[in-house]
Design brief:
360 residues, mainly alpha, 21 helices, globular
Length: 360
């Protein structure tokens, strides 16, 4: 049974009462009873929650998990993300970062809407650095230990640093060497995650000017930058531009409004082939349901500047489809069968990667 179809004992009990979510959330007495039942049976509850690869939460965080679940799980699909973002973020500093991710792990297993936890991890990272701006170097370094949720925590720290102490384009020149040193301290995957997170900050520091942010990415990557390092930073810049998941990115995003019809014209103004390529492929999110039309992705990626950029385009979209459909594997299956045969296995592999990197 897929992980997101499994339900906790508490959920089953609620359903058997035949009293809807509205009754439970509006009637405080019922809410208290539900919480008491869950907490009284916490030992049994912990042993029955899940099977198959799940690390059971500690008893110290169980009451928190139940509380957040009861507050958010029965809301409508539009309200859930905000609820989870708010209630999980406010767990800091009462809980450690490790404990917060433990909470997220359990909630992911009970509610498929939290399978994509990148956004909530962004919020947690931002809160940590905003509360402790003077310790940003230590916080950034420690973030390399928490790669869960597609490294959303590290990315949020970089974005939050800009908010805590806004950095101008001139100021960023002085802090780039520090970021370069911090990002170099982890392994290759951690370094990519760190550079990607700094890309978010550079987009903000340049007030949403993509070309200027890309120039800073090249400087960040060092005197003899590898293409992989540069692309990691480029990816953070482009994500802030085309996928403003965090609301405060929206104002910056509107500095240079791009639509699917103007994407190619906008990207053509950039200075290098790799910049144009990352710009074009990162704009995949502008096309919505068009992506699922047979042959669309093949046509979209065939117009990249060269063969290398075309291959990167496929990889970006395959990851994106996995990201977008963590709770809907049937859509991933339909999509992957719509691409050309030689890309089929790669499509499934990279989409599956998203399910892995978003799990805690």
């Amino acid at each position: 049974m897929p992980i997101f179809q499994k339900r906790c004992v508490l959920c089953v009990w609620i359903k058997k009462t035949n009293k809807g979510a509205g009754h439970i959330l509006k009637n405080m007495k019922s809410y208290i009873i539900v919480s008491m039942v869950a907490l009284a049976g916490v030992t049994t509850f912990a042993s029955l929650v899940l099977n198959g690869g799940f690390v059971r939460p500690s008893l110290s965080t169980m009451s928190t998990i139940v509380s957040v679940y009861a507050r958010c799980a029965f809301l409508d699909s539009e309200s859930k993300p905000t609820c989870y973002n708010n209630h999980i973020t406010e767990l800091y500093p009462s809980l450690s970062i490790a404990q917060i991710f433990e909470v997220v792990t359990a909630l992911q297993s009970w509610d498929s809407s939290l399978l994509n936890c990148h956004e909530v991890a962004h919020y947690v990272g931002k809160k940590v650095v905003r509360d402790n701006p003077q310790e940003w170097e230590t916080i950034m370094k420690d973030s390399l230990l928490y790669a869960q949720c597609a490294n959303g925590y590290a990315h949020g720290i970089a974005s939050g640093l800009y908010e805590a102490a806004p950095i101008t384009t001139d100021d960023v020149q002085s802090v780039l060497p520090k970021f370069a040193q911090l990002c170099a301290e982890g392994g290759s995957m951690q370094r990519r995650a760190c550079l990607h997170g700094v890309g978010h900050m550079l987009f903000a520091a340049t007030h949403g000017h993509m070309s200027s942010a890309f120039d800073l990415c090249v400087q960040l990557a060092g005197p003899t930058p590898s293409e992989d390092a540069v692309q990691a930073c480029y990816g953070g810049v482009a994500m802030s531009m085309f996928m403003p998941l965090i609301p405060e990115n929206t104002d910056l995003h509107n500095v240079e409004t791009v639509t699917k019809d103007s994407l190619r014209e906008f990207c053509s103004t950039l200075s290098s082939t790799s910049e144009i390529g990352v710009c074009l492929r990162s704009g995949w999110s502008l096309f919505g349901d068009d992506l699922y039309e047979p042959g669309f992705v093949d046509t979209f990626c065939s117009t990249q500047p060269n063969g290398t950029e075309s291959d990167l385009c496929y990889r970006k979209i395959f990851h994106g489809i996995g990201w977008e459909n963590l709770a809907a594997p049937e859509k991933v299956t339909a999509f992957c069968h719509s691409v050309r045969e030689e890309e089929l296995q790669e499509c499934f592999r990279l989409a599956a990667d998203e399910a892995i990197i978003h799990r805690c």
